[in-house]
Amino acid sequence: MGSNKKSGIEIALVNEVEVLKALHKFGWLRSKDLASLIWQKKDKRFSNREPEFCKPISSPSGLRMAQITLKRLKEKKQILSALTPDNSQIYALSQRGANHLNSVGIDTVSGKDLLRFFSFEQYRHRIISNEVSISGILQGFKVFTEREIAQNKWHFDKAGFMGKKPDCYIQNKEYGWWVEVERSRKNKKDYAFLLKWLNEVFKNCKRPHEKPALTTQISLQKVVFICTPVFEKRLIADLIRMGWNEEQVYLRLIFFRSLYHFRQVAFL
Fold this sequence. Notes:
alpha/beta, two-stranded antiparallel sheet
């Protein structure tokens, strides 16, 4: 009788495709991101529980497997790499890698343009957004990443929901969590639009626990802010000045201040 057990070569090829698919979904990732996403156990349940907003952790063995797989893909010229402002290495699809995914039915393009120069602030913003997305995937939620949302590969078109797009979006069977990654210093025009948008989203919610509809099946559970204490304090004060009360703020919004830092430190 034949064995169903996969050979080492078959496992390696599966791992390579999983890495390419991850780069397609996220645009670019670090080796530690891939280690968490692919070599950590995922929760298969898709229930109506709430996500935990926590930092994904990669194991030493997972990191080793990610590095080995990335090395093979680099040798096959299916991925590109670049140094970031903090001297970390990030990886994206090459044209050859994109062609390989296209050949197995995944419509994608090279990520070479994603590796062009960007600021430290843009880099950290994407890291945090990616980490939130990875954490949601590991917990078994449906997740749209910042890259997918930018490509309009989510519920809404290029105009977004009521004129705005999140930095990532996490969903269970009934509810969605709209995630915004914010710094304390925000463009004045963008900040004014954020306040206006929050008012518009919740303006028809008359009862305290009422949720606005995102789609015909999905309601918005909360807008999640990954932010500094300064930004949280300012936003709450401005919403209260606009007529919100504290109960409305904390039923509609949730803030995470300490999980993510914006300091210029090195990451793998």
